[in-house]
Amino acid sequence: MSNERIVFEPADLAGCATWQLISPEVFVLCLGAFIAVFVYWSRRPKLNEPPLVPYKYPLIGHTLEYLRDSEGLLKRCHEQYGDMFSLYLFREVYTIASNDLAYEMFRSTNFSFKEGLERMFPLGDIIGSKAYPGNAAVLLKDRFYKHVDDCYSRIYRELQHNIDQLIGDCEEPKLINNFDEISMTIIARAMANLFVGEELCKDDEIVKVFATFATTLIRVRKLSSIAYLIHPRLQTEYIKLVFKYGDNSPQKHKDLLTKKLKPIFEKRYQDMQQFGNEWKRPDDLIQLLLEYSIDMFGKIHYDCIACRMLTLIWASIHTTSANLLNTLNDYAGRSEYWNDLRKEQEVITDGLDFDLTMDRMEKLDSFVKESNRLMGHILMLPHCATCPSFTFSNGYQVPKGRLVLMNNLTYMSNSSLHGDNPETFSGFRHVSKSPFARVGRDSMAFGLGKHACPGRWLASRNIKMAMSILIRKYEISTLDGKRPKYPIKRGISVLGPLPLTFKKRK
């Protein structure tokens, strides 16, 4: 037996001291937490989830392929896996639904379009609207859009004035290289009239908020693409940081809206209390938001009102102006439709009040619907599962919190819904069928069921009114007489800028 003495080095003693710092109670607590998590995950019911398409690179998944060729990826996966499969994109699993399975998602009460949008782009975190109860879209649907028919004449006059001012007479051909800015301003001013009333819609600062807020969000979102590749949450934090210190921060917009609206609100609130039912109620959005604030908080809550305004600006103006731009590009590049659309305008509007003719413009409505149908987006309308698990008719299940998106490629190419050659533009395909704003299996651009966009009739009417004015007033064409295919980035069709020539019609 050796008589050597065991000598502890200082490093060994330090290690022992470190272990001694962890008390038995802490160790047991950590071990218990680990066991609890393990048991929870092991006992979770095994769902029959849609197949996750194999990918090469951990953490990255299908992201790079989706960014390079989203159309090719979706077509290949649909051919191999059918109407439902899952992709690992941007550090998250997304389930892709096509045809009838997408229809089931739209019709179910176990999915939330609002939560899906918030997951894809957390506007509520950025502008602070999540702090307040209620849903701006539902508020409009229940209490505003029912009375908006009375405002269409006012909107039409505003559109006509804006088009005359921004495009001009065009006695000589006028080349406009970037019509998307004009489209945004045209719609922004018209919506400002509807939202804040005729008192404020001419205010340059208010119009600037309406015209620039959505485009600023889009621009900052594009600049944050690298952060999104790492994780969607990192993109959110980046956008919040940019807006916190930038010139176009939501807080600055909210402060401006409050400054402009406060005197009007105070006067209206005083009149409401003084005259009661005898007071003539203004037909604009700010009156609705005033009443909503009083009902919810018992006072005029300016920050809540401003948050609702910014949410609606984002939801309505950007999408409506983008659809107007897309429709105008299709019209300018498809000369075979000019005569029929012009003739319809001349016959229907001759000597009649414009409000009485809008619903009779079947060819224009069909053209707008077809243009929107073939805009080119790959994945659309994200919905978040809100129940513990949801089972589709094909037996596949998705867990709570899973984002499910509609495969727009299969929708666009479905001949049973759209007739022969569904991938080919046919401007009058929908004549004598359901109008653009009516949702159904053959018209899911605005969603479906309880998830359908509540402002679709207003958006549709704005686009058609603006197109009617443009068709009757100008000869419009692309430089080469063709409508080029839009590039696809991150599964989204990028509109313009497409140079357009305007000339006054004789």
Automatic annotation (TrEMBL):
Heme binds at C453. InterPro entries: Cyt_P450, Cyt_P450_CS, Cyt_P450_E_grp-IV, Cyt_P450_sf. The chain crosses the membrane at residues 21-41. GO terms for cellular component: membrane. It is found in: Membrane. Its cofactor is heme. One of its GO terms (molecular function) is iron ion binding. It holds the Pfam family p450. Keywords: Heme, Iron, Membrane, Metal-binding, Monooxygenase, Oxidoreductase, Transmembrane, Transmembrane helix. PANTHER family: CYTOCHROME P450, P450, PUTATIVE (EUROFUNG)-RELATED. Belongs to the cytochrome P450 family. This is 9662_t:CDS:1.
